[in-house]
Amino acid sequence: xxxxxxxxxxxxxxxxxxxxxxxxxxxxxxxxxxxxxxxxxxxxxxxxxxxxxxxxxxxxxxxxxxxxxxxxxxxxxxxxxxxxxxxxxxxxxxxxxxxxxxxxxxxxxxxxxxxxxxxxxxxxxxxxxxxxxxxxxxxxxxxxxxxxxxxxxxxxxxxxxxxxxxxxxxxxxxxxxxxxxxxxxxxxxxxxxxxxxxxxxxxxxxxxxxxxxxxxxxxxxxxxxxxxxxxxxxxxxxxxxxxxxxxxxxxxxxxxxxxxxxxxxxxxxxxxxxxxxxxxxxxxxxxxxxxxxxxxxxxxxxxxxxxxxxxxxxxxxxxxxxxxxxxxxxxxxxxxxxxxxxxxxxxxxxxxxxxxxxxxxxxxx
Length: 365
Ligand code: IPM
Ligand code: MG
What we know:
Blueprint: E1 3-11, H1 15-33, E2 36-41, H2 46-52, H3 58-66, E3 69-74, H4 89-99, E4 104-110, H5 123-126, E5 130-136, E6 144-152, E7 155-161, H6 166-181, E8 186-191, H7 197-210, E9 217-222, H8 223-232, E10 239-242, H9 244-255, E11 267-269, E12 281-283, H10 302-314, H11 319-334, E13 337-338, E14 348-349, H12 352-364
Parallel strand pairs: 1-2, 1-3, 3-12, 5-10, 8-9, 8-10, 13-14
Antiparallel strand pairs: 4-5, 4-11, 6-7, 11-12
The protein binds 3-isopropylmalic acid and magnesium ion (MG).
The site of magnesium ion has 2 residues, from helix 9.
């Protein structure tokens, strides 16, 4: 038996609802495979601003640091949307990423056959899509200095800085090569080397590191071209590695392929994941807090449930348990059960809780 300590930061909107289902599924795994999982519930996001005046308190950050993994729901809502506010919601999330040194954000996009008809693209374009986007998460425009708004004699100015050190580039690029090795052995490094200095350094470092990975087919693609290829021929893409802002934008685009944001998990890691080893991580569905549907038992918990599978795989080195969850989700979908966001004719519509119950039951069967 193994024992794990998880900090759960459910956050705002639908966060608490989907996290409940993720925990339900984790409990089913613990029961089936005889593990012990301890949960420590903490506040993050708007709910933390309301209570403590800060989206992430130092105490919570400290607890997250000590935990084996952090499970996060979602943060945000119209109530905290003021661009001039002194404390911004997003700062909590960014402080958590930086505070835990989570430089590698893994966003897998897998289109399940039964949902291939569900997107705005043609089914034949998205059917079979199975890619992993790796986004650098603690550098670039998000954290570069100077970063400020100020007033000059000619008026107001705002500045952000895109800066990367070779060490920052090297460690994220290695994650790309390593993950490609266990997949279809294709790595697309995405940059804007025709314009940006940081991208020119990025490309140089990628080429240097590629010498250690002769078995991986490497391609350099400009970010604008990548945006196009993502919807033109997404099936051809295996692993993408890119810097923070490009990764943010491209993963929203890529999420469309899967039919619903409610299907997509993510992991943010403090090291290179490899089979059999454990790396610290923060796990969250890629969707937001969806305040308009909060509290109605209609949100899709599958993204969070698949997120929990990633936690088992990367932070606990429990591959068999992770697969068990993924298979249980597939089984529920194959039987025609759908939440509202992925509902189509002839399918059986169920709620957030019912989907969680169903997946948990399939695990324990
Ligand atoms: C994401 C989100 C965040 C980001 C926001 C909420 C700060 O868009 O996780 O992709 O830009 O990183
Ligand atoms: Mg984003």
